[in-house]
Design brief:
Length: 203
Amino acid sequence: AQSSGFYASLFGGASFTEDADLSVLVPTAPPALLSGEMKFGNGWIAGVAVGYGLDNGVAIEGEFSVIQNRLKQETLAFPAGATTIALDGRLNTYALMINGYYRFTSSSAFTPYVGVGIGTALMNIKAKPESDPNWFQDNDIEFAYQVIAGFSIAINANTSVGAEYRFFDTATPSFTENVTVQFDNQSHNLLIKLTHKFGQHPQ
């Protein structure tokens, strides 16, 4: 049965950032705009949330999460043809989100749920070609949202463990250091979540 009260969650898992369309603005005279594709390696997600759940299955929470994905390679379209460059580096995304959930009523320990979240994300990039000693580094802050689906299994009256899928997306970030780089930041995230409820009062 659902019960009302505050709760806290810890979560972590794997993150898979989608390959993204890439644009690079080179400040030549006149400026040159190159297009291409950014490819990412697999990464990870971790975070913490605190919220309040109602006995009707609705819950709202505040969340902080970190997503890190490795930069794999970029392909740029030059007038003479496309060039693929192997990369070292990573993209870190630090997100502050407000999430809303609906947990489906169940008489068993198994509770499926869905949710959505909106917030803001600070993105930090550190990248360089594998053959280049000079790092490209910058930060950007953009709007973020996520769509959530998962389930929890009650261990006891106050503690549950579950699995969750999240699609996470931000407005297109822009990073500048000598050149300006833009690409989408969309990721699919699979995680395990541990939740503890405080001061439960069954309705």
